[in-house]
């Protein structure tokens, strides 16, 4: 039944050879991989206004110069990542670039922050998507959290189905969102220019504002740069592109950068021009759309596509997290299971881990977008800084033709990213401190996992100079509970394997002991029976003691000890609770505490 | 760590031979086995008043004749059960008496309702105990449910420690309660008789009341008879008494009947004389105590001992449920695990099942006593009726000396119990209908379990005319994942057992297949290797197919197939998640779906 539910949700299994069909063309890639970056405009501008609003609405004009700063940062990042794409055509995530150029630990810091960050991508995007919906339908406001969780479940299922099918579903909303926002910005700017919007809604640029400080402006800038989260996605996912992958990826990146710049500046401008004030129940984009179109079809269309693209932005996490996990797992820093492709060729373990972690985060933060964003942004800018710095070192080491402008580009990117990271810690410490706790812990865990795998590899390696211990004979111990077909079955099997078979009977009562020995002698005169007395009604303890004795003797002679445990296989599942499951307990105990082979002999009930 | 927690809570394990020490003398037995019945006076009288109050306070005088009816019922029940004690000296629970005299199904109906009823005993008693506490301390009123649950956990632990130790703890509160209530009744009656209580608090007996009906009076009578729940406990627990058990049990029963009659009539009289009105936040007993003593030490002493005896009344459930479960399990109607004595010689599985079920009931009914009582009472009177009816048949069949008065006694008991049962269904159908649904389901389940055990017994029995299938040889299949020490280990073990060893390698890639075959030929030229290709990255499917083929051939030659599966035993528990647990999956699949022996070969990591 579970199997058929799985089939219904994620489709039939795919053969390994069907992998090639899952590659992305540019149009689909732009949709899948840019939705995170593009959708950030739904909350980025708002973050700037929230900071400025602590001084007062008069400070809102500062959003214009701050936005200019963010656009410069965007340009630097896009150019830097373009170079990474060509330098790492097999996927240049921050982890790979930092590891190769800066060394293991910087690589792990980048990898660790990205892993956590992809989880935050999912959490932030779905909760912002829920915000877009509840801005349009205020009655739904109390249900932000459940709506977010449903979105995560939906995305997880979609991604377990596989990349291409998801892409077809996801491409439309992204383009619809871009078109809707461009129309809104166009109409808004037209209205503003033609004087249809009252001039007195905003304070003119340059108006002096009491209480403004550099600290506050930096904080607003850092907040605004959360609109740039997601620009690295394309450079991580180059192997997903159709050939020629690097060229296609680079073009997609440039297209995304252009779109992002247009949408971001348009929204910042309109928010300023309309004099919009951020509030807890309606997003800034919703207010702009309302002021531009009223609650008409266009308003709901904008809110709808915004919600959709945000939810699908979360999908970037689903593309990136499993790929990063594969890279980390191949280097043995996280469990190997993340390298295994599922039925539909997606890395199911990564997908499922991501979904579960995002839901937990949403629950912990009660689905509140504004609390998740600072953590998210700082987690993005740490790997940004590390990968750009890695590129500087690469250029200095390799010195290819024309390396100087390349170095300058990456150095600019590294410097700005570094400054933004520091700003986050300086201006938003109360919200971002967990990064300083969890990041070292994650890196430590990576190291411990790696150490374990290395030790395991060493222990599994065959050393030709050290011949294996030969097994010269076998002793088989058969615990028996009575004279039944099950026991007959086990004894027959044991005697077919070796002459050294010992049946063991654990008696709770003295009189029982003797009676059983008599019966046994008549029934199986050729099989040795040992009876053990248990004063405490435990079977495991006396049995283990006996096995220890046998094993000591066996080891002297290079004999191997096997314990035969019968297992009832019932016809119906519920019958299992009618049978004492002590065989399972005994098996687990012997296997993990004693070094004996445990052979489970099934006895199938036919009725 | 779990083990030491267990030791701390329930004490050291006891030897089976220490069982005799756990028998009860009369004083302790009265405390343990009567607390249920005696404590019922804390809610029984209140139930009468609640029904009468639907007409008005003027109707309260009817509680006096109703109480007289309840006392007659009590007398009949005590006399009937006294006869059961002597007729069934090994424990005459309603289940045994009904089964032996009326047949299997009436026995199962009695047994089923009692099982559920003991759970209700626990739930009703602890929630009424919580009521007594929150009557004294109204600030605690919102915490009725958590208080009740803590009590259940406490009792479960106590009973896992064993019967005698519980008894010592429990005897004092029961006697303190009896003394406290007798003092209260004495003082109250003295005050009433000497005119210290105003005459105008109650309407005189016989005052005509508008709206009174036979239906309402019967309903009040049925409600009041909930004070008799628990009188059967002694007759079920005769084996727990010191010798001569039946005589001791009978005396204890009479003592209990006497005390119950005194307390019940005293409380009903004082409630009537004081003109007490039932309300949701303070119990009737609390109001009587308050009116008699004010909020002095005596008031808190009465509330305290009431709470204690109610909580300990729940303990009757803990004495009775496991014993009944043993009887049902011996007859194979419930899982055999209920017959196993735990570390402290109590039937731990019964005790734990009872505790868990009671907590679930409390949660479902939100800890509200008044909603649980009707269900509880009807569940008590069904087995009352059945066991008394069983006794009638027994006397008619056996006709011992002086059987006629005995028959009349039991017939009276049966008739009254039957009438009370019918009254419950007629007057409280909306509350007691679940009995009509669950009781048939439980009886059906009993039958299905019995059928299963009978079929199992048949399949396990050795038939001397049908010689066992001999095992003439063995094929051992070793799934291998590479050339490692684990594989070397398994192959060595397998070849020590039989010549027919087949190593199986499942390849996901075609090229891999060939390379591995080459390597294998050099490494283990004497062991046959079969490589299987898996297009769907599943190991289980191709492996199972292969095993099926081998097994078909093996069966023709009376060979037995064993699959050897290596199991990593990691040094630390958390390391387990670093290893693909596919061996566990494969093992479970092969064992339950295919009829092969699965031998698990441990490979212990030393680092």
From TrEMBL, chains A, B:
Q: Tell me where on the tree of life, at the top rank, the source sits.
A: Bacteria
The entry lists its GO molecular-function terms as: transmembrane transporter activity
Q: Which UniProt keywords apply?
A: Membrane, Transmembrane, Transmembrane helix
Is the keyword Transmembrane assigned to this protein?
Answer: yes
Q: How does it sit in the membrane?
A: Multi-pass membrane protein
Answer yes or no on keyword Protease. no
Query: For this UniProt entry, which segments traverse the membrane?
Result: 48-79, 108-128, 140-158, 170-190, 210-231, 252-276, 296-324, 345-367, 373-395, 407-426, 432-449
Q: Where in the cell is it found?
A: Membrane
Q: Which GO terms describe its cellular component?
A: membrane
Q: What is its main location?
A: membrane
Query: By what name is this protein known?
Result: Amino acid/polyamine/organocation transporter, APC superfamily
């Amino acid at each position: 039944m579970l199997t058929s539910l799985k089939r219904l949700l994620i489709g039939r299994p795919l053969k390994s050879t069907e992998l090639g069909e899952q590659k992305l063309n540019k149009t689909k890639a732009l949709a899948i991989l840019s939705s995170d970056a593009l959708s950030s405009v739904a909350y980025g501008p708002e973050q700037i206004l929230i900071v400025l609003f602590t001084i007062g609405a008069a400070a809102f004009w500062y959003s214009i110069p701050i936005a200019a700063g963010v656009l410069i940062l965007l340009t630097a990042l896009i150019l830097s990542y373009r170079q990474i794409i060509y330098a790492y055509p097999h996927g240049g995530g921050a982890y790979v670039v930092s590891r190769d150029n800066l060394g293991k630990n910087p690589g792990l810091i980048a990898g660790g922050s990205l892993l956590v960050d992809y989880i935050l991508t999912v959490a932030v995007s779905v909760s912002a998507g829920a915000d877009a919906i509840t801005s349009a339908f205020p009655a739904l406001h109390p249900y932000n959290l459940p709506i977010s969780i449903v979105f995560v479940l939906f995305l997880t299922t979609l991604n377990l189905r596989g990349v291409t099918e998801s892409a077809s579903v996801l491409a439309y909303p992204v383009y619809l969102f871009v078109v809707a926002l461009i129309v809104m910005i166009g109409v808004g700017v037209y209205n503003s220019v033609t004087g249809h919007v009252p001039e007195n809604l905003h304070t003119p640029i340059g108006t002096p504002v009491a209480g403004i400080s550099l600290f506050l402006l930096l904080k607003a800038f850092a907040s605004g740069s959360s609109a740039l989260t997601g620009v690295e996605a394309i450079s991580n996912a180059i192997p997903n592109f159709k050939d020629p992958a690097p060229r296609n990826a680079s073009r997609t990146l440039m297209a995304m950068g252009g779109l992002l710049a247009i949408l971001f500046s348009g929204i910042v401008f309109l928010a300023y021009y309309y004099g919009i004030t951020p509030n807890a129940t309606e997003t800034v984009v919703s207010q702009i759309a309302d002021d531009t179109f009223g609650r008409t079809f266009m308003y709901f269309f904008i809110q709808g596509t915004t919600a959709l693209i945000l939810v699908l932005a979360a999908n970037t996490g689903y593309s990136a997290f499993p790929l990063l996990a594969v890279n980390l797992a191949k280097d043995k820093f996280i469990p190997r299971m993340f390298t295994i492709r599922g039925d539909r060729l997606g890395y199911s373990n990564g997908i499922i881990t991501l979904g579960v972690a995002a839901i937990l985060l949403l629950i912990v933060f009660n689905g509140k977008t504004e609390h998740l964003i600072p953590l998210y942004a700082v987690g993005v800018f740490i790997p940004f800084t590390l990968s750009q710095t890695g590129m500087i070192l690469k250029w200095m080491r390799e010195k290819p033709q024309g390396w100087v402008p390349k170095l300058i580009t990456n150095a600019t990117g590294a410097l700005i990213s570094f400054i933004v990271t520091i700003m986050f810690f300086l201006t938003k410490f109360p919200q971002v401190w967990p990064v300083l706790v969890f990041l070292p812990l994650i890196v430590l865990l990576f190291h411990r996992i790696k150490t374990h795998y290395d030790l395991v590899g060493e222990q599994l390696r065959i050393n030709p100079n050290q011949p294996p211990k030969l097994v010269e004979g076998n002793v088989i111990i058969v615990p028996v509970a009575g004279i039944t077909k099950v026991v007959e079955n086990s004894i027959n099997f044991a005697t077919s394997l070796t002459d050294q078979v010992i049946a063991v009977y654990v008696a709770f009562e003295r009189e029982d002991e003797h009676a059983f020995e008599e019966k046994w002698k008549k029934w199986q005169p050729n099989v040795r029976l040992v009876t053990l007395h248990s004063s405490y009604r435990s079977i495991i303890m006396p049995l283990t003691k006996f096995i220890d004795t046998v094993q000591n003797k066996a080891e002297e002679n290079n004999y191997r000890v096997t314990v035969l445990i019968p297992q009832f296989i019932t016809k119906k599942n519920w019958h299992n609770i009618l049978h004492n499951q002590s065989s399972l307990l005994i098996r687990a105990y012997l296997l993990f505490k004693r070094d004996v082979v445990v052979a489970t002999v099934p006895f199938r009930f036919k009725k």
